[in-house]
Model the fold of this input.
Amino acid sequence: APPILVVGNTGDAATPYQNAVDVDGVLSSGVLLTVRLDGHTAYRRDPCATSTIDGYLVDLTLPAAGTVCGG
Done:
């Protein structure tokens, strides 16, 4: 599979962070981006997350494993 970026907010009540951890764990080519942020979305709410997501969508560039934004 091509590289897959999984984004999980630590304070997301709609989609708990553990779900992102679990999805990342079953993907052979996934990388989890942890965002220390409340709410359901990170894009355009956190500069680090936005930049990382843009890099993935435009260039298929994945962050290093263990990358954390926000906080």
